[in-house]
Amino acid sequence: MKDKIIPDDIKKILCIKPRGIGDIILSTIILENLHSFFPNAQIHYLTEEFAKDSVISHPLINKVLTYNKDDSLFFIIKMIRKEKYDIIFDLYSNPKTAQLTFFSGAKIRIGYAYRGRGYAYNIKSKIGRGDTHSAEHNLELLKIAGIPIISKNITFNLPKESKEFAKSFFHNVTRNKFLIGVIPSGGWDSKKCPKDKWIQIMKSLSKEISCSFLILWGPDDFEDAKFIKKEIDDSLLAPKTNLIQMAGLINQCNLVIANDSGPMHLSAALGIPTLGLFGPTNPKKHGPYSNNSDYVIKSDLHCIICNKLLCPYNKECFHQMDLNEIILKAIKLLKIND
Hints:
This protein has helices at residues 21-26, 31-37, 73-83, 95-102, 134-137, 140-144, 160-170, 195-208, 222-231, 243-250, 262-269, 283-286, 316-319, 323-334; strands spanning 12-16, 42-48, 63-67, 87-90, 108-112, 123-125, 178-183, 211-215, 235-237, 255-259, 274-278, 293-297. By secondary structure, the chain is of the alpha/beta class. The strands form 2 sheets. A 6-stranded parallel β-sheet has the order 3-2-1-4-5-6, sandwiched between helices.
């Protein structure tokens, strides 16, 4: 029998989601629900150091604990136990986070009972990853704990640094009616739309609407971003940014077109109309999660949603993607005809 949760008794909550910028941003879907059910509790997050900017500015998060990949399990457990949490939500539930949860000292430990990990939790969800969107999968831990779902919002709060960085970058920049952000990044090589396809998309959009492009990039995408910039006249190449700075630039866009990536989820969380380009991953599970977003996928391709890190078929899923569908959905998201 699971422990009964009395909201007034809960003073400190820890949510564990250590890595994956997009995954951490999607996990913010739980926050308004936790705050509503536990109005007097502090909400903390545990992430790896590199990923802390995903949530550090969120108004409902009181503290972000961080660790580095090389830190010992003992060090992390000691850091967690020092906080004396009442509840742990292990939103990651891998073998390491299961151990962290089990030794946390928290009376109530909630997680997914994946194989070999159920021991760590006294309230556990036996639901697999299933076909629901990965954002909503986070809500299963709230449901199993009897916490009402009053919100399905994912959010990213823009700190002052974001706004100042964007203001400085766009100072004296002349742009057309619409600014379209283009993000050729992707955590896997197979998720990255080829640069020649990006050029086709951007040139086609330029023929249809008055627009400028802002090309945003990560460390592994700079050469592709430079190549695209050379081929597109009315485009800006973003400077090197951290996540907070990139958020400020994205927030200035009228539309973002992106591969399945952390920045795509960041764009959706900011409320920017977002169009995702999908090949190896399933957009029904991993697409941009907002009311003003959409995706394009070559759904009838023999190898579509292969989940391979490297493509064995020369990225047919992107090369054969319907250009007209991309343009029509982009224009619809821009609400040009409204």
